[in-house]
Amino acid sequence: MVEKSYEEVPLFNIANVLTVLRLVLAPIFIFAFLDSAVSRRWIAVAIFFVAALTDKLDGYLARRYNLITNFGKLTDAIADKVLIISALLLLSFHGMLWWWVTILFIVRELGITAMRMGMRKIKVMAAGAGGKIKMFAQSLAIGGIILPWSEFLPQSLASGMLYISYALMGVALFFALTSAYEYVREAVRLRNEAE
């Protein structure tokens, strides 16, 4: 199969539609999770996991059917940031996550996004392995912290699941920092080559 260049791939394709859907779901998630009542948390976690699933699905479809576009690469990263940053801010707002963790993540996300936007004239930088691991662990952690485990599990198991969720957040933070370093190193290399 001959691969199409980004210019030949139609902008309106299923992968890009799923990416835009994730952007649309972000404000709905925010509205649902503004109140930390248990009933609202169930709705919020359902919306969050549907949105996170679109992240996996759009990437798979884009690669499987050769639907990769520069629009998709950049919009995918922005959609991820909007959803994750919203979730982190609301977790801290509700006292479920330390503010310093949220601030570290936000500084990393905004810094790397700004750098990728600045680099797009040289090369659109796709997410690396570390960034993907960070996103996966972070998504599981956020969902796990929001989910009201004690509503359907014995207290000891509920506490254990919450502990695992916070441990996953630690894993996500580790990969957030190490992948940020990799992004910066790659950007420096690309800029040096361009010059």
Write a brief caption for the model.
This protein has 195 residues and is mostly helical.
List the helices and strands and how they pair.
Blueprint: H1 14-33, H2 38-64, H3 70-93, H4 99-119, H5 129-146, H6 155-194
- Determine the structural class based on helices, strands and strand pairing: mainly alpha
Count of alpha and pi helical runs: 6
**Radius of gyration computed on alpha carbons:** 18 Å
* Helical fraction: over 70%
Biggest sheet record: none
**Distance between the ends:** 35 Å
The H-and-E topology, N to C, reads as: HHHHHH
Average pLDDT, rounded to a whole number, is 88
The shape, in one word, is: globular
Low-confidence stretches: 1-6
Q: How would you characterize the overall build of this protein?
A:
The protein has 195 residues and is mainly α. It has helices spanning 14-33, 38-64, 70-93, 99-119, 129-146, 155-194.
Keywords:
195 residues, single chain, globular, mainly alpha, 6 helices
